[in-house]
């Protein structure tokens, strides 16, 4: 069993180190690049680069291949149908959640990323899609589904592992009012991964979700 407690420990320690380092790295970036959008993009690229190094470290230390992390072929047609089904369900649940928040008198705080995505130029819009809807899904799914969920389901039942990994995935976005929507997305991503025994459907859902979010914020 390659995705064992050792790999899980590397995940926990590695993610903790990245999140401890990023405030200092981001501060340095903002000092050198006072233009806020440029600094934010560089900070995002840096954090994702660190996650890539973490994935490579986990693979090296545990002798894992990409196949071990879910990079396996699956039925394209079946996966595509499931991606659209889960995406619709996730967005429906999120809409209901937003309505409930509204009628309970609570408002969601507009985070820094949303502000930066608004009113983009054409080049910025393309860059946003490439970074947020292409690069990020590949990295985060390899880390959270390939490594984390892959480890957890060797010690827990399938659904327990899916929910735990989804909770961690959502919590690490540090968005209190957005915890439930990201939790629901994380459960959907975990379900796709375990159903198809492949990371590609989860990447597809993550990419589609982020693409819709980028387009929605950009045109609003």
Automatic annotation (TrEMBL):
One of its GO terms (biological process) is proteolysis. InterPro entries: CAAX_protease (IPR052710), Rce1/LyrA-like_dom (IPR003675). Residues 124-212 form the CAAX prenyl protease 2/Lysostaphin resistance protein A-like domain. The chain crosses the membrane at residues 7-33, 39-60, 80-102, 122-139, 159-179, 199-219. Keywords: Hydrolase, Membrane, Protease, Transmembrane, Transmembrane helix. Pfam families: Rce1-like. GO terms for molecular function: peptidase activity. PANTHER family: CAAX AMINO TERMINAL PROTEASE FAMILY PROTEIN (PTHR36435:SF1), SLR1288 PROTEIN (PTHR36435). This is CAAX amino terminal protease. It comes from Dehalobacter restrictus (strain DSM 9455 / PER-K23).
């Amino acid at each position: 069993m390659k995705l064992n407690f050792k790999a899980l420990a590397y995940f926990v320690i590695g993610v903790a180190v990245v999140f401890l380092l990023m405030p200092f790295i981001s501060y340095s970036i903002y000092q050198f690049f006072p233009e806020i959008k440029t600094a934010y993009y560089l900070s995002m690229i840096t954090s994702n680069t660190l996650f890539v190094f973490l994935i490579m470290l986990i693979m090296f230390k545990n002798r894992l291949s990409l196949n071990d992390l879910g990079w396996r072929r699956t039925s394209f047609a079946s996966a595509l149908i499931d991606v659209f089904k889960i995406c619709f369900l996730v967005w429906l649940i999120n809409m209901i959640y937003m309505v409930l928040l509204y009628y309970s008198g609570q408002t969601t705080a507009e985070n820094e990323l949303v502000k930066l995505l608004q009113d983009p130029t054409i080049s910025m819009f393309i860059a946003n899609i490439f970074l947020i809807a292409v690069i990020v899904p590949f990295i985060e799914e390899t880390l959270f589904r390939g490594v984390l969920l892959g480890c957890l389901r060797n010690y827990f039942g399938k659904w327990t592992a899916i929910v735990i990994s989804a909770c961690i995935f959502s919590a690490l976005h540090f968005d209190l009012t957005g915890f439930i929507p990201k939790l629901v997305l994380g459960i959907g991503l975990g379900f796709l991964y375990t159903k198809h025994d492949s990371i590609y459907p989860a990447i597809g859902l993550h990419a589609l979700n982020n693409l819709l979010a980028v387009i929605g914020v950009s045109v609003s």
